[in-house]
Amino acid sequence: MAFASLVWTAEGGRPHVGCGRVPAAETRAGHDATARRVTINQPDMTKRNDLKLQVSEAILACQDKQADNVTVLELEKDSGAFTDYFVMCSGSNSRQIQAIADAVDERLEALGMRVTHAEGYKQAEWVLLDYVDFVVHVFSEKARQFYDLERLWKSAKRLEPAELIAKPKPRRVMTSKSAAGKAVPRVPKKARKKA
What we know:
Blueprint: E1 5-8, E2 15-18, E3 38-39, H1 45-64, E4 68-74, E5 85-91, H2 94-110, E6 117-119, E7 126-130, E8 134-140, H3 141-147, H4 149-152, E9 157-159, H5 161-164, E10 174-177, E11 183-185
Parallel strand pairs: 5-8
Antiparallel strand pairs: 1-2, 1-3, 4-5, 4-9, 6-7, 7-8, 10-11
Helix pairs in contact: 1-2
């Protein structure tokens, strides 16, 4: 399915609806039309990165409360899915299930996100936290086996939590200066092997 894009040209800021190219009549000689336009409907990379950050924070909250079997499903756009990701995990008892749900809620609220819909907290068999772009499911082992969402959404891509969790960049420690006066990174010593 092709989408038309709304393009603002440099000539008076008039909009042009088309396939992303500015008509030749609206270009100046010697200038490339693509360099002089702004396409409105291009995908927003920061939104995608923000979503992955939010999902990774939910995963970390689950892991902080010792959740079992943390799984992430990336749902396909054409599958009729109402969200992009499912984060699923299990707790061993009702208190742990509620603690996991509370940890997810608190951690995402610290990022400025509020749960739009929650279900099952009192029963603590299957707690559902809906954040629109992703849904967190916290199950008891029995409920997880019974409902088996992984089988129900088998067309979804299964991701490892580590794939979404951002790894911190290694920090370089500057300690000494070279003869030229520039800081030289300290190289960590290799651990000695014990014989």
